[in-house]
Amino acid sequence: MADPMRIRAQVAGDKATVRVLMAHDMESGQRKDGAGKIIPAWFIQTVTVTHNGKTVLTAEWGPAVSKNPFMQLVVKGVKVGDKIGVTWKDNKGGTRSDEATAT
Amino acid sequence: MQSRRQALKKTAVVAGLLASTGLFPQLAFAFSKDAFDAKTIQDAIKALGGGTLSASKDVTLTGPDIAENGAVVPFAASTALPGVKRLLILVEKNPAPLVALFNVSDSVEPAFSTRAKMGQSSDVYAVAIMGDGKALYAKKEVKVTLGGCGG
Predict the structure, then answer these.
(1) What mean pLDDT, rounded, does chain A reach?
(2) Residue B4: pLDDT band by 50, 70, 90 thresholds?
(3) CA separation (Å) from B40 to B37, B51, B126, B133?
(4) In this complex, do B149 and A30 lie within 8 Å of one another by their Cβ atoms?
(5) What are the Cα distances from residue A34, in Å, to A37, A38, A39?
(6) Largest distance between two CA atoms of chain B
(7) What is the Cα–Cα distance from B123 to B131, expressed in whole angstroms?
(8) Residue B7 confidence class, pLDDT cut points 50, 70, 90
(9) Contact B138, B126 (CB under 8 A)
(10) Residue A69's closest chain B neighbor by CA?
(11) Could you give the CA distance from residue A5 to residue A94 in angstroms, rounded to a whole number?
(12) How many helices and strands in chain A, by DSSP H and E?
């Protein structure tokens, strides 16, 4: 299982700035290993962000997103105590979901 | 007739079973493979249903002028315009330009930040695809001193 994501959701007024740091190699598929073979691409393909269970963002990524991806977004209508969930799926079928409470 | 009703019910059950096995991937959240495989920025935009690119001062791309480490270059893309469907970040000279796309909903502001790999110094684009298919962009030249694709 991948390492947990770090999710921070900070409320300011009626919005929250959500910062997510995910643990993933995000292999681009361009690198070669010691023997000269291409290391196959392995990267997060889809990301879903939910606010109290309702999907507020879906994103698609390619292998060019940096390793241990960082993402920041602003979600409207968030109050302190609301739940912000983030789920990612990678191109090999791996997936991870984590949740944080807005502060 | 009793037999037709039964047949219809069975088809519905079978269809449900098939869908749950994932044989109909287009029902699930589809990955825009063509857009991410596209080799030019305009091709990627076209694959996403966008029209011809046109520059707009209402789209903003923030990033460094010089990236010391091409493996981790921070970018922020945003727009003040209403009616945006998607915000994209593309690096022109990467092997495949489309880096990330964000599907904007009413519950989020059209403003996103992430970090991207850049293989070499290149123009970077933030593109907003509007509800009517217009593709508006802002671009910025980013110099890279150490390429980020392992080369």
Answers:
(1) 95
(2) confident
(3) 9, 14, 14, 18
(4) yes
(5) 7, 10, 10
(6) 75
(7) 25
(8) low
(9) yes
(10) B115
(11) 14
(12) 0, 7
B-chain residues near A64 (CB < 8 A): 91, 94, 96, 98-100, 116-118
What CATH number should be reported for the domain whose range is A6-101?
2.60.40.10
Report d(CA B123, CA B55) in Å as an integer.
14
pLDDT value of position B147: 60
Domains of chain B, by residue range, sit at 1-29, 31-144
Band (pLDDT 50/70/90 cuts) for residue B61 is very high
User: Per-residue pLDDT averaged across A46-69, rounded?
Assistant: 97
What architecture does CATH give domain B31-144? Answer: Sandwich (2.60)
- Across the interface, whether the CB atoms of B105 and A55 are under 8 A apart is answered yes
Comparing B32-46, B116-130, B134-148, which segment has the lowest mean pLDDT? B134-148
- pLDDT at residue number B26: 36
Pairs of residues, one from chain A and one from chain B, whose beta carbons lie less than 8 Å apart: 108
Higher-pLDDT residue of A94 and B31 is A94
CB contact under 8 A, B108 and A73: yes
CA A24 to the chain's CA centroid: 9
Find the length of chain A. Answer: 103
What are the two backbone dihedrals, phi and then psi, of residue A24, each rounded to the nearest 5 degrees? -160, 140
Q: For Cα atoms B65, B68, B66, give the angle at the middle one, nearest 5 degrees.
A: 10
